Amino acid sequence: SGLNGTLTIPSSVTTISGTPFYGTNFATIQNDSDATLNVSDITPAYNVDYQTGSAGDGTIGQGTYTRVVGEPIDITNNADIAITAPDQTYDGTEKTHLNWMGTSLLVVKYNGKTLTRNVHYRADYINNVNAGTATVTIVGLEQGGFSGSQSLDFTIKPKSITPTVELSQYSYAYDGTAKTPGVTVKDGSTVIDSANYDVVISDNVERGAASVAVTLKGNYIGSKTAYFYIQDGQVVTATDKTVQAGKTVALNATTTGDGMLWYESSDEGVATVDYNGVVTGMKAGTATITITAGETASYAAASTTAKVTVTAAPTPTPTPDPSPAQKKTQTITAVDKTVQAKKTISLGAKTSAGGALSYKSSNTAVATVDAKGVVTGKKAGIATITITAAATMTHAAATKAVTITVKNANTLKTKAQSKKLALKTVKKKAQAFKASVIKTKAQGKVAYAKKKVTAKYKKYVAVSKGGAITVKKGAPKGKCVLTLSVKAAGTSKYMPATKTAKVTITIK
User: Fold this and answer.
1) Which pLDDT tens digit goes with each residue over 114-160?
2) pLDDT at 26 over 50
3) Three-state DSSP class for 299?
4) Is residue 408 very low, low, confident or very high in pLDDT (cuts 50, 70, 90)?
5) How confident is the model at residue 67 (pLDDT cuts 50, 70, 90)?
6) Contact 266/302 with Cβ under 8 angstroms?
7) 36, pLDDT greater than 50
8) 202, 227, 339, 406: which could form a disulfide with 345 (CB 3.0–4.6 Å)?
9) How far, in Å, are 245, 314, 332, 340 from residue 317 at the CA level?
10) Do 301 and 293 contact (CB within 8 A), yes or no?
11) How many CB atoms lie within 10 A of CB 77?
12) In the chain, what is the greatest distance between 2 CA atoms, to the nearest angstrom?
């Protein structure tokens, strides 16, 4: 196609197939003596159809002609050229009208016949990434029989999505100033540049729900509103403590709000802490205890830390062997214990001089003790365990009494709870209801806390110490599984206990 140069035609040839000359304006046909034969002597005179290979074969006049000279077709402003390009949708990539198989979606026709991309023309693009007006320029390829260029505008449409809006913080303590969390907007996992959306934050000074309205623009169409909450602040107070290894000390932490207190040690090899904030020294060193007051319907979560220094237990100073009349006093180390009925606990008694230890219970109906100092609770009550350290060559015999309190297992048992809420109601205002997960009455005061919740509802669900469950304004449609921690404080006759319970909240 677009033939230029020399073609030798044997004298016996009287017909030229149209196939090689598609896209060529025949200017001249010359014989060996350079005599010019008018193009009208070949029928048709130009642009025979190479696609079929049969339409319009040209008949040579008398004589033998050895050279055919062609001129490319100029497509600039050529009425016989038709270009169509479908609109595209923004996805962050260049739009070149090629599908995933590499097939061109751009259609270029000359006199109703489709031309081939990168054979008859190439396509050049500008402004073809972002939403708006892009331009494709069709440039004729001379080797394909065409020259010149022609441009066509097409539209890249904004992508319509429902974005994901993430806030840097969902709960603030009220202080009378405007709260402005960081905003991240995503299309799936792709972070959208801030130039492509506007943010309006409302109701972000006073207590209650504040809204973050995101409206997309530029390369995207869509909107989404997220919420955060301004609540009264609570202050957690605790002081640093020092405790000897093997001993305990209470942190006595307090909060000005109603959030349940939780404790966590940075190094349990040095110090452990239970759910009541009682620290046990394990070995010499320091550990940091983090005390957190949980978020409730009225208060934002808050935390503080206390440093616990654990000192080593004193080591007896060796002394020369005394005479029998001068034996030293032997010291027994042991502390009072509480044990649940039908459970065991070790006294962990130690003596400063290594005298053999023996044990005796004052009331075996309440508590028994074996030769290793392991106490078994029998029934609720109080018993005294007398610990005797036998005399050694250097130390006199010694005794120590410890009090064993036996308590019954707490009767607390929990059950699952289900709650249905109307989506249209939750969109307008927060909804609160009482936890109803106690299956068997607990012994002692009961406290509730949020232990775990379905991820997308984490910022929308709060639990008060008294068991009020609040689903905050703006919670989305779906099923929320909330795991409650239910703690019974116990009484003089019953042990404390902690159970979990699941509350399934359906919003529709």
Assistant:
1) 899 998 999 999 999 999 999 999 999 987 778 899 999 999 999 99
2) no
3) strand
4) very high
5) very low
6) no
7) no
8) 339
9) 18, 9, 16, 38
10) yes
11) 9
12) 152
Coil/strand/helix, residue 138: strand
CB count in 10 Å sphere of residue 345: 17
Residue 49 clears pLDDT 60, i.e. is over it = no
pLDDT band at 19 (very low <50, low <70, confident <90, very high): very low
Q: How far, in whole angstroms, is CA 35 from its chain's centroid?
A: 83
Q: What is the dihedral of CA 20, 23, 27, 29, to 10 degrees?
A: 10
For range 245-249, the mean pLDDT? 92
- CA–CA distance, 359 with 374 (Å, rounded to integer): 9
Q: Across all residues in the chain, what is the average pLDDT?
A: 84
Average pLDDT over residues 168-186: 93
Please state the three-class secondary structure of 73-114 as a single string: EECCCCCCEEEECCCEECCCCCCCCECCCCCECCEEEECCEE
User: How far apart, in whole angstroms, are the C-alpha atoms of residue 265 and residue 273?
Assistant: 6
Task: Please report the DSSP string for 348-402 in residue order.
Answer: --EESS-PPEEEEES-TTTEEE-TT-EEEE-SSEEEEEEEEEPP-SSB--EEEEE
Q: Which amino acid is at 505?
A: I
- How many other C-beta atoms can be found within 10 angstroms of the C-beta atom of residue 141? 18
Task: State residue 56 phi and psi, 5-degree precision.
Answer: 70, 50
Q: Is pLDDT above 60 for 47?
A: no
Distance CA 357, CA 399 (A): 9
For the record, the structure tokens of 184 come out as 């991240």
The answer to whether residue 434 scores a pLDDT higher than 50 is yes
pTM of the complete model: 0.49
Residue 173: per-residue pLDDT: 86
Among left, alpha and beta (phi > 0; psi -120 to 50; other), residue 309 is beta
Q: What's the one-letter identity of residue 253? A: A
HSE of 280 in the Cβ direction (CA atoms, 13 Å)? 10
Average pLDDT over residues 432-443: 93
